[in-house]
Write a structure and sequence with these properties.
The complex is a heterodimer of chains A (about 200) and B (about 80). With about 200 residues, chain A is an all-alpha fold. Helices cover about 75% and strands about 0% of the residues of chain A. Helices cover about 75% and strands about 0% of the residues of chain B. The chains are: A mainly alpha (about 200), B mainly alpha (about 80).
Chain lengths: ~200, ~80
């Protein structure tokens, strides 16, 4: 019987080390966000009125954030299409879709940043009470993850333009896509929980 | 041996199910119907479910990928 080459063995492996590492990372991220959502539930259900009376005049920008949510969901679709295109060896299309995804992610961060500036101007700060604290910690933690995903994507875009990816080898795009889609899927949960609960 | 363990689990399960009691485990609450107590309750239930969800999804994904690869190798 002919011995398998290293490539064939790697090809037959059901789950690469990189993908397993990303899955474990996402598991720990889920536990982190569970803890934060758990804290939010305590504050939310522990207060009869929400926002608390001290912040009754502050209204969160639901419509703008809804538009921002749409941008993030579209970015999830574009990165998924980028992965599909590299699997079909359409490198140029993959590069363009990755850039589009990064631009949408940056737009999300800029819009959210401008919202925060307005909210701080209205008096909602991290130190202004439990409402401000849980809002900035929960939404800010997600924003840091989006920023991390954008930086990761920028590295992947650089690698894509230097010709590192093909239909046979694209684990960098694949792991980045998994992480990006996780960050995108998490956002609507946080949006409805924090902005509408 | 396994039969004994299963039998004991069944017996303990039956005894517990016939003796349902609410336990006040929140030292900061006066009674269980307080909003803060309900908040803690839901928060604890939510967080308790997460390890099972996380390990279930990761374990399920790995199991599914192994099964799929083995099936592909056989065909």
């Amino acid at each position: 019987m002919m011995a398998q080459t290293e490539f064939e063995m790697t090809d037959n492996r059901p789950l690469s080390n990189a993908k397993l590492a990303v899955l474990i990372l996402l598991g720990s991220e889920t536990m982190l966000f569970s803890g934060l959502i758990g804290a939010f539930l305590v504050f939310r259900m522990g207060n009869v009125t929400w926002p608390p009376l001290s912040h009754a005049d502050i209204e969160l920008p639901r419509i703008v954030t809804g538009f921002n949510t749409l941008l993030l969901i579209i970015s999830g679709y574009t990165i998924f299409r980028a992965l599909r295109s590299i699997q079909l060896d359409r490198v140029k299309l993959c590069q363009n879709l990755l850039i589009l995804t990064g631009t949408l992610g940056l737009a999300f961060l800029i819009i959210q940043g401008s919202e925060w500036v307005q909210l701080i101007g209205k008096g909602l700060t991290l130190q202004s009470g439990v409402y401000g604290a849980i809002f900035y910690v929960l939404i800010g933690c997600h924003a840091i993850h989006v920023l991390g995903a954008v930086i990761w994507l920028a590295i992947v875009i650089g690698m894509a333009f230097s010709g590192r990816f093909s239909s046979d080898s694209h684990i960098g795009v694949e792991t980045c896509t998994i992480y990006w889609i996780y960050v995108v899927a998490l956002w609507p949960i946080l949006y409805f929980l924090v902005y509408f609960a | 041996m396994i039969r004994h363990i299963v039998l004991w689990i069944l017996v303990i399960g039956l005894v517990i199910s016939f003796l349902p009691q609410s336990l006040e485990a929140c030292p900061a609450c006066k009674d269980l119907n307080e909003p803060i107590a309900r908040g803690f309750n839901w928060s604890v239930l939510f967080m308790m479910s997460m390890p099972f969800t996380v390990f279930g999804i990761i374990g399920g994904s790995v199991f599914y990928l192994y099964r799929r690869t083995n099936r592909n190798l056989k065909t």
